[in-house]
Design brief:
The longest helix is centred in the last third of the chain and has 24 residues, at 182-205. The chain has helices spanning 38-45, 108-112, 130-140, 159-166, 182-205; strands at 24-32, 54-56, 75-77, 81-86, 91-97, 117-122, 144-149, 174-177. The termini are far apart. α1 (38-45) packs across α5 (182-205). The strands form two sheets. The protein has a six-stranded mixed beta sheet, with helices on both faces. It contains five helices and eight strands; from the N terminus they run βαββββαβαβαβα. Helix content is 27%, strand content 21%. The chain has 206 residues and is of the alpha/beta class.
């Protein structure tokens, strides 16, 4: 599910400079396996033209990268994607999309540094690739929500079944999304921000 060629963002993007009303900036990482839609999500929701580090896929990746469900992909992220969205006049999110292939996971530690929270994008055709992703976030203590990206041929499961399959605690939100759509991607980010707010509130009250 590539962002290139998408027509989901009508009108021009905002200018690159921050709104003068911005008071708080938060770093968010968007993680997941290869081809789950991280680049697309950053591109669809960003207020500015996103920075991507996509390179053309070559024969060298055959047998190394698991491209099941993404056989038509011709490019892949090799460092990170970067975008920015103003949630309110005062709150700005900086979005960092991680590379999905396991051979690039050494870059994740730097991308996770200073992140307040994360979105874990999953493809229900390849749930198993999500386990290592979530495990790394848990090791670093980064709170996350799970976003189920809508692929036309992907099976759909009830939330309770997904929660059990992914071994998630009841408090972690799971939300369906279509990362090609700006409104849907923004809903995911808003779900994450509400989750982070609830965590902060519970810490204050305990």
């Amino acid at each position: 599910m590539d962002f290139n060629g998408s027509d989901t963002i009508p009108g021009p993007r905002t200018e690159d400079h921050l709104p003068h009303t911005a008071e708080t900036a938060v770093k968010i990482v968007i993680v997941g396996g290869f081809g789950v839609g991280k680049t697309t999500m950053v591109g669809s929701v960003s207020d500015i033209r996103p920075l991507t580090t996509e390179e053309t896929m070559t024969q060298a990746g055959i047998g190394v990268d698991d491209n099941y469900g993404s056989e038509s992909k011709t490019a892949t992220t090799v460092a990170m994607d970067f975008g920015r969205i103003s949630i309110t006049d005062k709150l700005v999110l900086y979005l960092f999309g991680t590379p999905g292939q396991e051979r690039f996971w050494f870059l994740w530690n730097g991308l996770f540094e200073g992140a307040l929270g994360a979105v874990v994008l999953i493809d229900t055709r390849r749930l198993e690739v999500s386990f290592d992703v979530m495990g790394r976030l848990e090791e670093r203590g980064v709170p996350f929500v799970v976003a189920v990206n809508s692929f036309p041929d992907a099976p759909r499961y009830p939330v309770d079944e997904l929660r059990t399959a992914l071994d998630l605690t009841p408090d972690i939100p799971i939300i369906d999304c279509d990362v090609r759509r700006r409104a849907s991607s923004k809903d995911v980010l808003m779900t994450l921000m509400r989750f982070l707010h609830s965590i902060a509130l519970s810490r204050v009250l305990t």
